[in-house]
Design a protein that fits this description.
It is a single chain. By secondary structure, the protein is mostly helical. It has helices at 2-30, 35-46, 50-69, 75-79, 83-99, 104-124, 154-164, 172-181, 187-192, 224-236, 251-264, 274-286, 291-298, 304-309, and strands at 198-199, 204-207, 218-221. It is 57% helix and 3% strand. It has a three-stranded antiparallel sheet, with no helix packed on it. Helix 2 packs antiparallel against helix 3 (50-69), helix 8 runs antiparallel to helix 10 and helix 8 (172-181) packs across helix 12 (274-286). The longest helix has 29 residues, at 2-30. It is elongated, with a radius of gyration of 26 Å.
Length: 325
């Protein structure tokens, strides 16, 4: 029994020694990795959603450029920083983005990108990157109250719709209708939808939400009105193959057109494509849709975001009107 215990002890020591040697080798090798190479590895290994990849790639590329200005080019350079200096470098980068005119919501996203990037480095190279910086400061925090994007009233929408129908771009009105009738979809979500994603027989739409970390698709109902609009567009385009994108109009063009036709319709508001999402949620709240119904349509994870898009009249839509004691 003593011999067996001794053998197990020796085996364990060997396993532990091999593991520590491998860990040491991995960290020593990683020390020579460039910051940009590390970012590419992080994006490739940790993220699958193409929208998220684009956003984080932009954020971390800016961070890498900022680090290079401070002489930090490799993971060894990054790992040599003390915890306090690492936090100050990250905070200085975010301050720099604010000074460059980035809005708080954009800087908050960059803050999250830094956190997830350092978590990845710490998990894979724990001897080299020993600390995930904690970046505080109210300046980098977005307090989500009601947002600033204005919504349309139902009457304003009808006037705008009449103007859009006169556009030479036959795709414009169907695109706007799709955005609203498919749950207030963002422009990038609309542009990623292909004809194969429209299941006319099953009356549903297969879509990849923009702000999800996974690559998974979601299904949305296809109502009769939107089905009719898409069918007409499909025929007018000569019945394209299923792998073709439905909408190819660029966001800048759509935003310019919406502003132009809103002005022609006499709508005195700042209009953009995101106005459609705000309008969809506000209309739902005004007609009494439940939180679950709106979350199922918008594909938001948190009901807090519904408040962000809420443009209801707070004097008219209030539980106080229903209270009688």
């Amino acid at each position: 029994m003593t011999s067996l215990q001794l053998q197990k002890s020796e085996d364990l020591a060997l396993v532990t020694s091999n593991r520590e040697a491998e860990d040491q080798y991995i960290n020593e090798t990683a020390a020579g990795f460039g910051i940009n190479d590390s970012i590419r590895a992080y994006l490739t290994e940790s993220i699958t959603n193409p929208h998220t990849i684009r956003a984080k790639s932009s954020d971390l590329k800016q961070f890498a450029e900022f680090l290079s200005l401070n002489g930090i080019l490799t993971l060894a350079d990054l790992g040599s920083l003390s915890n306090i200096r690492l936090e100050k470098i990250c905070s200085a980068f975010l301050e720099d983005r604010l000074h460059r005119g980035n809005c708080v919501s954009s800087v908050q996203r960059k803050k999250t990108s830094l956190k997830t990037f350092f978590s990845y480095l710490n998990y894979n190279f724990s001897r080299l990157i020993v600390y995930v910086p904690v970046i505080g400061g109210e300046r980098f925090k977005l307090n989500r109250r009601k947002g600033v994007t204005e919504g349309l009233t139902q009457f304003e929408w009808l006037k705008l719709k009449q103007q859009l129908a006169e556009s030479k771009n036959a795709e414009l009105l169907p695109l706007v209708c799709f955005a609203i009738m498919a749950g207030g979809r963002r422009i990038s979500e609309c542009q990623s939808v292909k004809w194969d994603n429209i299941e006319f027989e099953n009356k549903r739409i297969k879509i990849r939400p923009l702000k999800r970390k996974t690559e998974g698709f979601e299904y949305l109902p296809l109502n009769e009105s939107l089905k009719s609009i898409l069918t007409a567009l499909y025929e007018s385009k000569g019945r394209p193959s299923g792998d073709k994108r439905i909408f190819i109009t660029h966001q800048q063009s759509v935003d310019r057109s919406l502003k132009l036709y809103a002005t022609k319709a006499g709508i005195q508001k700042r209009i953009s494509f995101h106005t459609l999402r705000t309008s969809f949620i506000t209309w739902g709240l005004e007609r009494g849709d439940t939180t679950s119904e709106l979350l199922n349509a918008t594909l938001h994870i948190s009901p807090h975001m519904l408040r962000y898009y809420d443009r209801t009249d707070t004097l008219k839509i209030s539980s106080i009107h229903k209270t009688n004691i």
